[in-house]
Design brief:
single chain, alpha/beta
């Protein structure tokens, strides 16, 4: 269908009144986008009320307009050669606003894409609210929570439970959620053993994720027949142990098409060779990205 995108663009620091939010909402046709630094809890609640009854809007974006690049040399606390960070000022929407939006999703049957990346107000409590809505909502196909740095393992556990019931979501982006570690990925992997709908999941730049999380996803691949893409790039704690587990899983899985492991500095020759050897049996994988994995040397290649 033709999509009309109503993008709210105003001077930085200008917060929209409730009436302005409502006016923008009613003027949109299919696609609505707001700068999050211009929407407060009240504005988000207005959106939620509209979404409860609206059956035409298919895409809502309450997200930062752009990522900021952060290099390792200027931000040594990041283990990545180059990663993305959210710009400041995306924190006007708090817990109550997002919870109202989550409640609205339990009723709405039209919205299929929700982009909330870099929303600082989204942590585990809010994520649990969205997870509850996903158990009932069977319209949403794509959720982007990338860069929600307050989101951690407890939020992932809640999302995992929702995946056991949800049959609509096709893509879940959790990139650069710095609170997510192995415990959260292990929980998600358990949900994916049951879920037969999700096709793409991203944990790239989740710098706490390591071999344990990678091994859990590998176990999932032995039974899951739906996943087509896994992104674990920029996860430096993933090493040869995790790669060996993936290699074993790929000998059985013939559904996965893409694995992104670029810039995983913990990967060495041993893991790389194991995964390449698995490709002699696996004929489904079309993209295997090891770019900028500096631990792979001449022996691996």
């Amino acid at each position: 269908p033709n999509i009309f995108c109503q993008h709210v663009s105003m001077a930085p620091g200008v917060v929209l009144a409730r009436e302005e939010v409502l006016e923008r909402f009613h003027s949109a046709t299919n696609d609505l986008e707001f700068d999050p630094e211009q929407i407060t809890d009240d504005g988000c609640k207005v959106l939620a009320e509209g979404i409860r009854s609206n059956q035409t809007l298919i895409c809502l974006k309450l997200a930062a307009m752009r990522w900021q690049r952060v290099s390792r040399s200027t931000e040594p606390s990041f283990s990545l050669a180059s990663t993305r960070r959210c710009p400041p000022g995306c924190d006007l929407i708090g817990v109550e606003g997002f919870k109202a939006l989550a409640e609205a999703l339990k009723i709405n049957k039209a919205l299929n894409r929700l982009d909330l990346h870099c929303c600082a107000g989204i942590g585990d409590e809010v994520c649990k609210a969205f997870a509850e809505s996903f158990k009932l909502n069977q319209a949403l196909t794509r959720i982007d929570l990338s860069g929600c740095t307050a989101l951690g393992d407890e939020g992932c556990k809640a999302l995992s439970q929702s995946l056991k019931l949800n049959k609509a979501l096709r893509s879940m982006l959790l990139s650069s959620c710095l609170g997510i570690g192995d415990e959260g990925v292990v929980a998600m992997a358990e949900g994916l053993k049951v879920n037969q709908a999700l096709e793409s999941i991203a944990f790239d730049s989740c710098v706490k994720v390591g071999d344990a999380g990678c091994k859990a996803l590998a176990e999932t691949l032995k039974v899951n027949q739906t996943l087509r893409s896994i992104n674990l790039s920029d996860c430096d704690r993933i090493g040869n142990e995790g790669l060996n587990a993936l290699a074993k899983a790929l000998k059985n899985n013939q559904r996965l098409r893409v694995i992104n492991l670029s810039s995983c500095q913990g990967i060495g020759d041993e893991g790389f060779k194991a995964l390449v050897a698995a490709l002699k049996i696996n004929h489904a994988l079309t993209i295997l990205d090891f770019s900028e994995c500096n631990g792979i040397g001449d022996e691996g290649c």
